[in-house]
Specification:
Length: 464
Amino acid sequence: MPPRLTSWDWCPGDRQFQNVLLLSFAFMLIFTAFQTMGNIEKIVLESIKVGDGYVSLAIIYTVFAFSNWLAPSMTTVLGLRWSMIGGGILYGLFIASFLYPMAWLLYFMSGILGLGAALIWTAQGTYLTLSSTPETMSRNSGIFWAILQCSMFLGNSFVFWQFEGKEVIDASTRTLVFLVLTVVAISGVICLFFLRTPQLEIDMLSRRNDLGRTDSNNRSALQAFKNSLRLFARREMMFLFWTFLYTGIELSFFSGVYSAAVGFTEKLGPEAKRLVGLCGILVGVGEVFGGFTFGLLGSRTVKKGRDPIVLLGFLCHTVAFYLIFLNLPNSSPIGPTTDIAYIFPPCAGLAMLCAFLLGFGDACFNTQIYSILGGLFADDSAPSFALFRFTQSGAAAVSFFYSSSVPLGIQLGILEFFCLIGSFTFFIVEWEDARKKRDLAFESLIQSPAEEENEERHPEEELR
């Protein structure tokens, strides 16, 4: 008699891989709402003259940065699933606040969302690590990233359709867009309720129950905070700090600044506002293409090294920054402008190519950061991902604060400088890790013949 199929047997692979797929789909829905909102926030708020989109995003990432120091302790107390559910609910509430746009509410909810972001991302990194092995970490991180970034073109396709022919975003369009995005975010939160606890977390919870749940929770939360401080001083983390820093600066640029710069460039024609949505779609296509490519090549990157993929990301971003400098006017991130750059008139097709390169390059960096953190710090996954998010979000916050007043050329110069530094420091960590693995492999080869020789001598000694 054939075995009875469960509701999960539609999915190929083991239970752990099914966890990764459901986690990825839930995050895709939540961030379809949030990333689309971040892409259009500056344009929408400029149309209704309420608040400043860059300031809102800066507040989010500032609170996000500092909340990451507490997030490992909070996830220890709440558990991974409930931490992600709580964070997802705060994302939904933030997006819903745009249905009643008020400056004080915007900035208040931005701060609240920063706390939710720290919760959801720290728990996500730990959950992904516990659902992976060293051999599947690169694959799973690539697949998670690819599915997550489908959110970029799903939500932005809706915006591209809704913003057609609009130079100013009217109230009815704004209400419809944010109502739909709120419903999508809530759908993602509902999916999180169906996540199953990874076996490794079950084992940890069992040990904690044996010790006494309340006392163990308090000690685990305090230990998680101490681990974060200790981990930050490790040599590998000090080098990766610069890579994290760069991903934060470029995150703010492609997720909020670049699309706004395209929308504010009036020489692109009457469809400039609509290009904001198309820009987000192309960033998403680049992210998804990179995520799936490196997910499928995950086993090879573990063997061959992660540095070629980061080098590819460096080259993609360098080319994109140069083309953006030639194509968009210097004042475009600040507000509507009729200025021109070196290419006249500015080319919409070139702007979309740069959006794709920004997305693909970001996938190169982020998939390999997930992979190296899951590999090097598997025993300290929550603190390591919290430190990554702390540095990344802190850099994004600073970047959003200066983006409203700093010309495009200077912003691109800052990006290129940190892209070079961040790539080089990642190479150092990757090369040192590869050297340690080679040394361990060499030592095991030397020890194996010696152990065999001892085993052969042992029977002879017994006979004597």
